[in-house]
Every structure is written in structure tokens, then in C-alpha cells.
Write a structure and sequence with these properties.
The chain is built from 1 helix and 5 strands, in the order E-E-E-E-E-H. It has 62 residues and is mainly beta. Bound molecules: zinc ion.
Amino acid sequence: MNHASHIVNCPNCGGHASRHFLNKEALIRTQCPHCDYLMITCSDTGNVVEAYAPGLVAAAYR
Ligand SMILES: [Zn+2]
């Protein structure tokens, strides 16, 4: 597999999240083990493919 990953600050809880670049699908996946934050964006267009953030979802939709 040819993919890179590195640690970034989680935008939801500020903890250490991991960011993976998925070459095959040209996607960037950011996932936080502390709060279940998940963000998948297209590296070509920057569009958000999938996003899940427990705190933000509760604030935005509840
Ligand atoms: Zn988090």
C-alpha cells in the first residue's frame, strides 16, 4: 500500500487525530480516536465526502 498518515489536531476535541491519504480514491481521511470525529474529503476538489463529529453534530442539528 502506498499511503501516508500523520497526526493532526482534532478540530472537534483538540486531541491527536490521525490523517490518512488514500491514494486509490484520492481521499483524505481524518479520524480521532478520542471523540469519534471523522472527516473524509476529496483531495482533488476539497469536497467533504463524509463527516461525523459528535459534539458538532449535536450543536448543529439538535
Ligand atoms: Zn477528537
